[in-house]
Specification:
8-stranded parallel β-sheet; about 40% helix; globular
Length: about 350
């Protein structure tokens, strides 16, 4: 017969093991919770299939844009072809959306995905909790303006679209304040929909080859002034932060408190010293609460992680400024129902 003391010892051991198991389980859960990346909002992603013929690995923050000779056959990209680490590789045929969405899940990213409505809807259906739908205008000269306006109204009132963009007027040599496109911005103001306008960089150093109507002068942020005067309640996202026209960009931000910028494209397609200098100017000038993260996600699925690392490794930014750029500013601009991320 076992003694009462033996029963007490067994009971004590049981409760000790149970307590230890509970403690380990709590620690494991806490560790798993801590390992999940802080949330990120990418305000500039394209709804594309990624199957671009001839797509090549890319060296981000390339150190040089090469000159060309018009007597020779000119390549579409002016990026120097240097060996680099890391090199970013295109997705396998048919795998682009799947790979980008997997990256978004891994990195805890919510993205504004823009493009033609059918393509955007495909992304939205694949990841409804991570996609904010956007669609806009590109070449109004070739569009049926009345039909386009009616379609846009439908997309933003009943179709679940939240952002009017990308608006690529610069590629057509058109100012955003041109009256020929004013009706689209009037609609955005009426419906309280933010607009995302391409301004600044473009063409990989070869816009003259790839986009003959592109005009660098139409990327001047100050061209937005008349538009903003006509539509004082319009929320505007200046894509690419108006690079490289930093002084004019700062002038516009100082005069218009509802203008934000994104650093998409700029963040990986110019030398890293130049990128950091431009972002630092925006923050040091007092506009750190209006700088939003974006990738201009194209072709290479790992571009998103690489672009996030640029902000995370920026020594001139405080931890709070990094969180503002990566999440808080966009959440405010888009009026998302979420708490600030610290």
């Amino acid at each position: 017969m076992q003694s009462p003391h033996y029963a007490v010892i067994c009971a004590a051991r049981f409760f000790f093991c149970a307590a230890l198991l509970f403690t380990c389980s709590v620690a494991s859960l806490a560790q798993n919770a801590e390992s999940k990346p802080a949330p990120v909002i990418d305000v500039h992603v394209h709804a594309m299939d990624g199957n671009i013929p001839g797509a090549q690995p890319m060296c981000p923050n390339t150190p040089q844009f090469l000159a060309s000779d018009p007597k020779d056959k000119e390549e579409r990209s002016g990026w120097a072809k240097n060996a680099c680490t890391p090199a970013l590789y295109p997705a396998a045929p048919g795998e682009y959306m799947k790979e980008v969405l997997a990256e978004m899940e891994r990195l805890n990213v919510t993205a504004v995905v823009m493009g033609d409505p059918k393509s955007v809807q495909k992304w939205k259906e694949a990841a409804p909790n991570r996609i904010i739908a956007g669609t806009g205008i590109d070449n109004p000269a070739t569009a049926d303006k009345r039909a386009l306006l009616e379609d846009l109204r439908k997309h933003f009132t009943t179709g679940g679209f939240k952002v009017m963009g990308e608006i690529g007027l610069q590629y057509q040599g058109i100012s955003p304040s041109d009256m020929s496109v004013d009706k689209y911005f009037a609609l955005a103001e009426e419906l309280d929909v933010p607009v995302a306008i391409h301004m600044g960089t473009g063409g990989s150093g070869r816009a003259n080859i790839t986009s003959p109507n592109f005009r660098g002068s139409k990327g001047d942020p100050l061209l937005l002034e008349e538009l903003l005067a006509r539509h004082p309640k319009l929320r505007v996202q200046v894509m690419h932060a108006g690079y490289p026209l930093i002084d004019n960009m700062l002038t516009l931000l100082q005069a218009n408190s509802h203008v934000y910028v994104d650093v998409a494209g700029l963040i990986w397609s110019y030398p890293i010293k130049e990128v950091n200098r431009y972002i630092e100017r925006l923050v040091d000038a007092g506009f750190g609460d209006r700088v939003m993260f974006g990738t201009d996600q194209l072709v290479w699925p790992k571009l998103m992680a690489y672009s996030i690392s640029i902000i995370q490794n920026a020594q001139y930014l405080t931890p709070q400024q990094k969180r503002d750029i990566l999440f808080n500013n966009a959440a405010r601009f888009l009026r998302l129902e979420t708490k600030p991320a610290n």
